[in-house]
Amino acid sequence: MNLEEKALNFFALLEENYYIKRNLSNIQNSLSDNITWIGTGINEVCSSLSDAIEALTAEVKEYSGTFTISDSDVNYVALSEDLCYLFGSLIVTPISSEIAEENLRFSVILKDAGDEMKVEHVHFSHPDLLQDEHSYFTPKSRLDNHCNLQERVDSRRRQLELLTKNIPGGAHECKDDAGLTLISMSDGFLSLVGYSREEINTLFDNKFINLIYPEDRASVIAAIQKSICNGDDDSEIEYRIYHKSGKPIWILDKCRYIKTDHCSSFYCILIEITDRKQEQEDLRLSLERYQVVINQTTDIIFEWDVLSDTLSFSNNFYKKFGYIAISKDISQKLVMSDNIHNTDIQSLTTIMRQCLAGIPFTETELRLKNNKNEYIWCKIRATTQFNNYKQPIKVIGIIVDINDDKKQKEKLLNQAQHDPLTGIYNKIAINSIIDSCIKDNSNGVNQAMFILDIDFFKNINDTYGHLTGDRVLSEVARALKNSTRSSDYIGRIGGDEFVVFLPEVISENAAVKKAEKILEQLNQLRPFKNEMNLTASIGIAMTSSSDDSFVNLYENADKALYAQKNNGRNGYTLYNENFHKNSSIQAFNIKNYTDDNFAENHVVDFGLAQYCFRTLFNADSFDSVISDLLEIIGRSFDVSRTYIYETLEDNKHTSMIYEWCNDGIEPQVNKLQNFDYDEDLGGFRDNFDKDGLFKWSLKDETNNNLEEVLSYQDIKSMLHCAIMYKEIFLGGIGFDECIHDDREWAKTQISTFKLTANVISTFFIQDRLNKKVEKLLNKV
């Protein structure tokens, strides 16, 4: 092989190592110790081997990518037997779009060292692009313009680099090929994935497709191809890529497809969305759990969008009611809908106004119609959501079917309020109703109370037996119903005593006419074989502007009844301002009748105590029925609060354990815990009398500690009955009155309360003993 062939083969190998393979070690081995190297850069002048190696190392550090040689023209000139000169031109193109294509002129001096060739000198240069093709010089004006343009380009480039660095996430450019070969990567991109450029080149072969999580690669390629086919240069894709930590990260890829005459590539901005994806997954799971709960519950979820005035329901609404609910213009249409019971419209408008007024939580009970035209009792609980300005924007809530519970409670309350024999109100219920009617009579309309006593009823029982007596009582109750209006109230207050209350009557004369009608109805009854008719005595009392309380009205009617009995029975007597002048009992001692003899002249109502006994006796457990019983007792006595408290094991402290509160009364069960009888309540147990009763009202004096406790509960009066076991104070049952300052506990009420409390106490003690035995057995 001659020198020319050797030189040309060596130069071809040199081109391959330097541009295509970028093999620096082979290049360094080919350099002479006295090498001189002049490159295209301003400072790229080397006068020794060390200078050349340093320059090559810096060059590769700046750009480690490869080139393609698109044109090569090499000429040979022999200088001596072992020296030759090569010159010509090269066009090389880097794979990175960040590096410009090189249009080079070169000259190389090679020396034949026997078994190898050595490079003695290298010189690279660029043709002056500002110089005309047939000119030998560059015009100064053209150079100045070029410099100005270059400065502007450099400025824009720096701005672009700064913008790229400040973009959240990272940016990169990749080829439109199967591997999405990376052309350039920003520092933000490297920070995003955690790898260096060298690691990406080594570990992922400089291909972006290898960085993409395997399970997502197919969908990413499909999304890119679909976007290109649709002629859309811009696309957004979410997928996972590898991170150096070993965990994949979610990214949002905002990609633009650029196609030129020479090549096509993708310019991508990547934003990490791992946290957002996790939040979306958490939200998805939360919504899934929410949907599971909705599907499993019979309750109905609703959402009222206040701004659009629209209402949406869960599917349970249609399942429950059988029709599609109103969804638009709620504020206007809902209150006009016949799907809501007309007497409950006010409850609905109230809860809607409360939500719009900014009340965070509210609830109400109303009746909704189903597709069978039946009204179902429902409880509505609503929670208001607010915007940043504390303005209500949405109301979220549930609709709970309480129809069965409502009917059961009404049934239980009806049983507790009504006399089981006659079906009319019992004494406690009728007294409470009358008291409420009198107190609510703000317009001052005339009201009347009749107390009716069957004449010689004891003789009926003695002569015909108690079964006949019970039948007479039932027929009297039926006659009273037939003689009165549906708006009037009838009750049995004793063995053979009845009360009729007219909440609205025109005059005294109208009340008298009503009494005459009742007596006429009773006289028509023939309950006995000898056709003897039934007679009764009636005492009538009217309300007046100066004296309209239940106690006074009851006493006046009772006085009139007593007078009628003394005047021959079988008639009525009206209590009015001329009563004492005209009656035959002018010497009647009112104090003696209304004080100690009161309880003797009135029969205790055993119905409530009997009902409590039956309920507790048949119950599975004390806890399962006591809450309902407290409500029934509380409503029967018309008190604010009923509750049970027990003495703790140290025999010094007490805690409330059961409680029922009337409408609008604040519960205390969570507050009244672990109170010291002596230190906190001022020797509370000392207030009970020998019968185990403690009665208190505002006019009574008490110690400061107890007064403070009663004050913050807003108690006006109270009645307590002790729970005793072998002379040990185990706790008590209490009534609180928090509304009326003048509440008086009548002796019949106290007697009935004590009897009922004793029944509950017996079962309470048994329940506690059972639990202690069970606890001991568990220990054993």
From TrEMBL:
Residues 176-231 form the PAS domain. Signal peptide: none annotated. It comes from the Bacteria. InterPro entries: Biofilm_reg_signaling, GAF-like_dom_sf, GGDEF_dom, Nucleotide_cyclase, PAC, PAS, PAS-assoc_C, PAS-like_dom_sf. SUPFAM superfamilies: GAF domain-like (SSF55781), Nucleotide cyclase (SSF55073), PYP-like sensor domain (PAS domain) (SSF55785). Residues 445-577 form the GGDEF domain. Residues 235-285, 362-414 form the PAC domain. It holds the Pfam family PAS_3. PROSITE patterns: GGDEF (PS50887), PAC (PS50113), PAS (PS50112). This is PAS domain S-box-containing protein/diguanylate cyclase (GGDEF) domain-containing protein. It comes from Anaerorhabdus furcosa. The lineage of its organism: Bacteria, Bacillati, Bacillota, Erysipelotrichia, Erysipelotrichales.
